[in-house]
Amino acid sequence: MKGVAGEAGVLSVIAGDSPARGREISSQFSSARWPRICTLQIISLLSTACGYHTAGHAVTLPANLQTIAIPAFVNRTPTYKIEQRLTSAVVQEMVTRTHYRILNEPNDSADATLRGTVISTSTSPLTYDSQTGRASSALVVVTAKVTLTDRQGKVLYENPSYLFREEYQVSRELSSFFEEDSPALERLSREFARTLVSDVLEGF
Length: 204
Known about the structure:
Low-confidence stretches: 1-54
CATH topology of the largest domain: Double Stranded RNA Binding Domain
Helix content: 25-40%
Shape: elongated
Mean pLDDT: 75
Largest sheet: 7 strands, mixed
Structural class: alpha/beta
Distance between the termini: 40 Å
C-alpha cells in the first residue's frame, strides 16, 4: 500500500491540479508498468517450480493392517541375484522395526503387498591408482521402484525412482561389487531397506 500511495503522489505532482491530466498520466504509467509486473510474476512462478521433485507418495497406513506380503523383487537388470539381496534386506528391516506379520510370497490373505523392481545397475571408476593406472575405487548406482498396495489395490505408498549410490574400494575389478558376498552391496542393500521402511512408516 505504501508503494501505491507513493506512485499516486508522484502522479499528482506531475499532473498538477488537472484531474484529466492526472488520469491520462496514470493510464500511461499503468500500461507501461503492467508488462513488467506480469514478467516478474511469471519468472517467480517458474523459479518456484524448477527443481521440484517428489521422491515418494504415501498415505496413512490403515490401523487394521496386520500382514504385509513382500514377494521377491523383479530384476530387470543383468546383475545376478541383486533382487534377492534387496528383498532380503527389506524383509529383515520390516521384521525388526515393525509389528506387522511379514510373508515372503504373494498371499491373498495379506492386508497389503509390497512389490519392488530393480530398474538399473551401473558401476563406474571413481579414482585411479597413480602408479598402475587402474581404478582404485568405484561408484555403483542402483535404481528401483516400489509400490505398497492394500488388498483392494489401493496404493498406500509408491516411489517410482529410488536411487542409491555406494562407493567402494576395487579389489579385483569393477564388477566385483555385484558379487553376492560384496560388503559394499550389503551396505547398499541395508541403506535401501532402512530408507524404504522409514518412508513407508513415516508417510514420506
